[in-house]
Design a protein that fits this description.
By secondary structure, the protein is α/β, with parallel strands linked by helices. About 25% of the residues lie in helices and about 25% in strands. It contains six helices and ten strands, in the order ααβαβαββαβββαβββ. β2, α4 and β3 form a beta-alpha-beta unit. It is globular and about 40 Å long.
């Protein structure tokens, strides 16, 4: 799908229903909010990639965190957030852009992405995304990336996704940006959609190294070979250990669909 068509797709998705009816809606944006507040200091710049109409920006402003930037492909989604926030919207930088083509104008302490990276099914697109993330994230900064887990849904909003375990996501980032990021936390959690469907997510936190990636060309150079499917990943996290499991989140009561178990590190029961 070309960029104008993709932007139009997401504009139509956001225009078709209230934001509280979207499958990814969260009245309280967890676990992202806990992770950001644990790592962000006052005055730290935060970018919410694919923030759309999500309410993470509301929660960050309430806690006087930021400055906050919200980037999304859909101008319709950003307009909904601006309308909801009212006068507070003026405290946020809003960017309607494709993250794989974006040129960050500043460095950020926190890069947050809930469910953008898993839509990048092409290796060149993943490389372009990671090149922008490396350019945007300051040395020592934190990247928080949530995707559908290895046993999560195979599509979202009629688009295919790549599912990841924390291990396979770490391997993908290391392959594109060798030595640039260290996985410091990882966990699985269940998201309940407004209709009660349970979706399994993985969330991983990475710290950017103080130096540049070692041993290979920058991610925007020649693209590496395609990654192995996330569900097949089995290598250990020895290169990025120790990895801290995230704090437990209350498990939902609805039964999940019968899918094979994921390969990722789960939160404590």
């Amino acid at each position: 799908m070309t960029l104008p068509t993709l932007a139009g797709h997401w504009d139509a998705v956001y225009a078709a229903r209230d934001e509280t009816a979207l499958t990814w809606h969260q009245p309280v944006p967890q676990p992202a909010l806990d992770r950001i507040t644990a790592h962000a200091a006052p005055g730290d710049a935060i970018v919410d990639v694919g923030g759309g109409s999500a309410r993470l920006v509301d929660a960050l402003l309430e806690r006087c965190l930021g400055p906050v930037t919200v980037l999304d492909l859909s101008e319709t989604a950003l307009a909904q957030s601006r309308q909801r926030l009212g006068r507070k919207a003026g405290d946020v930088t809003w960017i309607a852009a494709d993250v794989t083509r974006w040129h960050p104008a500043r460095r950020y302490a926190i890069w947050h992405d809930r469910a953008v990276f898993h839509f990048l099914t092409d290796d060149a697109a993943r490389a372009a995304y990671l090149a922008r993330m490396q350019a945007a994230l300051r040395p020592g900064g934190i990247a928080i990336i949530s995707t559908f887990a290895a046993d999560g849904p195979e599509t979202c909003s009629s688009l295919p996704v790549c599912r990841y375990s924390p291990e396979s996501l770490s391997q993908t980032l290391e392959r594109h940006l060798p030595g640039a990021l260290r996985q410091i936390e990882a966990g699985l959690h269940d998201h309940i959609t407004p209709k009660g469907t349970v979706q399994r997510f993985q969330t991983s936190l990475f710290r950017r190294s103080d130096g540049q990636a070692r041993g290979r060309r920058h991610a925007s150079a020649a693209m590496p070979a395609a990654a192995a499917p996330a569900s097949a990943a089995s290598a250990s996290l020895s290169e990025v250990s120790p990895v801290t499991p995230m704090a437990p989140i209350t498990r939902p009561s609805p039964s999940r669909s019968s899918t094979p178990p994921g390969t990722g590190t789960s939160w404590p029961p």
